[in-house]
Structure formats: structure tokens, C-alpha cells
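Suppose a colleague, Dr. K., hands you the sequence of a protein chain of 484 amino acids and asks what its three-dimensional shape might be. Before reaching for any lab equipment, you can write down a predicted structure in C-alpha cell form. Begin with the sequence itself:
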Amino acid sequence: MRKMKTVAIIGGGVSGLVAGGLLSRNGIRVRLFEANPKLGGCCANTYMGGYTFHDGAQYLAFPGVLVHVFGRLGLDHASLLPIRKIIANQTVTLPNGSVVTFGDGLEVTLSQNGMVKNGPLQKELDLLLKKWAPVFRLFADDILLHPFSMARLATKSWRHLSKFRGTVAGEITRLFSDEAVRAAMAGILLYTGKPPQTTPVTSILGLVAMLCEGFYLPVGGMGKIPEALSQAIKRYGGEIHLNSKVNQIVIKEGRVYGLEIVGQGCVEADAVISTASGMATFNFLLDAGAVPVKLHRKAQKAQLSHKAMVVQFGLSNQIDVSSHSHSILPMMPEQEKVFLPVEDELAWPVYSVPTVTAPEMAPQGGSVVEMFPPTRQSMPADDWTPEQEERITQAAMRALARLHKMEIVVKRTLSPKHFQNQLHLYHGAAYGLSLTSDPRAYFPHQTPISGLYLAGQTTYPGYGVSSAAMSGILAAEAMVMDDR
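The predicted structure, expressed as C-alpha cells, is then:
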């Protein structure tokens, strides 16, 4: 590979900003191209009528990984990105009248008919952490900070490999005796898009992350994360080009030559980092003849995550809740019902109130509510119509109005079509690859095409803001190593 002078980056989400910041710090000229008029991708904020709404990402997990990323970029995390811990995490209401509340850490309470009935719950939580906390710490402090290697994973985690068999439902049943507690614990992990009976047991690390380390929200919302990360590119002289959609990665004589930008023509570069998904990169951004056969097959057969929909409300009143997130759920054996498409009524409302943790996201005395109704997964993102979006929005409004007083000032709906066309998620899939995919399903940071590298949620270490940011570090490191 010839000595790099200029690197072009596709996408201004957290992974692209991190990769660009690290390369700029290494003295390489960076030109970052973002199709939208703002940075952040799915981690951006949108401001409407005095209210702050999230464009996708809802909270920050694995905060230590993000602190590590800031350190690698030479940025002061504490001053650039003040964050608050979500100390009232979730309230889950079950059909038998039980209510399970998740506070800070192991502050988990089971109530029935207004009476606290914790019984053996605290002892069972201790057993959960005794078994899984060492695995979580291994991943958070080591595995996620290095390029993926099966050999390295086996060497580091061989003592825990026997734990990785089975499903979330099986593990929760073994660990917890009360059916309401089981349902609430499984409900925390429904963000995977699958019921606990078909979710691999390793996904339980999402629950352990909340109990061990907690979830966080930046002051002012998730969009403050890309705002802070962009400081590295700006500090070290990189260029950020908004409203610059990439039409094609140009390949000449078997290696990267540059990018074709809509309305701008060809921009030359010595190397390219694509933070579009691996599927989009190899299916859309490259000429078919330039794609290696194995990567073409991988992109075609990729198991996608579920499509998501978000309905957001800005309220003039303060909603009467104490937890950040709320779910009305069936018992664990029936939680596949949560994913049934909404017809006329939303049977199992799932919603968050970020203003419980970050009140500055609404005018004084107001609230922001973000609801997550299920969608018909078989329907292509392109087929969504304004009428369908409005029907589901109205169903979400009715469901929330049955639970709380609402004085709606503004509302916003993000359908799979929005996530596909505005946020450029492949076919509208919320996380790109399915969250239950084997890590070997991720696309490589270093590709067989000379000068082409990948970052983002379909590269290791995968989904989530901190992990996507770390993927930017790993892609930039791979590029710098090749250049030596």
C-alpha cells in the first residue's frame, strides 16, 4: 500500500467521527462525507418546538468503552460530554398485577397489590451476578477493545464457555423463581427483536450491563455524543462535508481510487473507510465486479435485525412516572406477542420518558415520551405510507392516554421507511445485523480490496453507541498498521 496522505470516510455517525478523529490525530488528511445536513446518524438529536428528540439511540451502555475511545482521540470525556446515570431504569407491569421496578444496580423490587414481596429476589440477583458479572467485565474491559479473534476469545474466556449454551428463557428460568420476575428480566432484553425462547443466552449480558454498570444519558440527549466526538476531527484539521451523499466507491486497478459524490463528481483518496453497513457497501456502493465472491455472498445472506418504529411526543405537562422506561408485558412464555404488528390497538405498550433523567430535553414543566410500537417485519420499508404511520401513531396515542394525562404539543413518527431513506439503515433494519448473530457474521475492518476499510454497527464489536465508536478505532488502527 502506498503511503497514505488522504482518507475519505463515508458517514458521519459515531464510528466515522471516531475513525476520522484518530486518523487526523495521526497526521493523515481526513475528508468525511455525510449525506444528511447534520452529524450523528442514529445517535443524533432533532429539535422541534423546544423539545429534543432522539433520532435512534436511546441510552448509553458500556460507558467505559466510550471513555476509552475519547482517550484514544485525545479528548477530555468529562468536560466535553457530561452524562447522568439512569438511576430509575425501568418499570414492568405484568398481567397478574405484579409490578417489577429496576432502580440503580441491584435495587430491584417486586410488588403485588401494592405490597413488596421480594422473597428470594436479592439472593437470586446475587447468583446472577456471581455467574455473569465476570463475563461482563471480561468483555467490557478487554474483548470489546481489541479486533475480534476466535482464538483470542477462546483463550480469554475458556473458563466461561460452558455458560454460553442455551437461551435467555432457559437461563432466566434457572435463576429466578417468581414468574413475574422472570417476565420482567426477559422484558429488559426484548430490544433484540426476538422472544426469550429464541434469544441466545449470551444476550443476558445486556441485563447484566444494566445491573453491574448501569445505563447513561448525556446531558441534552444522545446527540451530544457525536457533537463531542467531532471535536477531534476539527482539532486536528480534518474536513467534514455535510449534504454529501456517496454514490459509489471508485476502484481502479484493483484498489481504492476515491469516492463519487452526488453533485460533486469524483473525490480522490488514498484509502476509504465505509461506515455504511457491510451489506450496503458490498451491494450498493461498489461495482459488482469489484466485490470479492465471499463478501458478496456474506452481504447477500446477512441475517438482518428487526425493523423499528418510534413514535415521539412532546408534552406540555410533566408525565406521572418515576422510571426512565416502562413496559406492559405478557408473561415470559408469551412474550412473542409483543412483536405482533399493531392493527387498531397497541396491546403491549413499551415507552421511555427521557426527561425523567434529562429534564432539559423539554421546556420547563414538560415531558418527552418515546414509544416503540411493533411493525410488520415482512413489509418492505419502501411500502410504508403516511396513512399507515398515522394509524400507528394514533394507536400509540390512545395507549398512552389510557395510562397517563397527555397534553401534546408536538409529535413525530419514525417508520422503517424513515430509518432506511433518511438514516440510511439497510432495508430499515434497526441494528443492521441481527443482535443474535454470531460475531463471525460481522464484516471485516480490513477488506480484500486494497485501501478499503469498514467500520460501524456491522463490524466488530457490533451494535450500540460505544461499540460502534470502538469499531471506528479498530478500522483506523487497521489502516495505520497497513500504512507502516
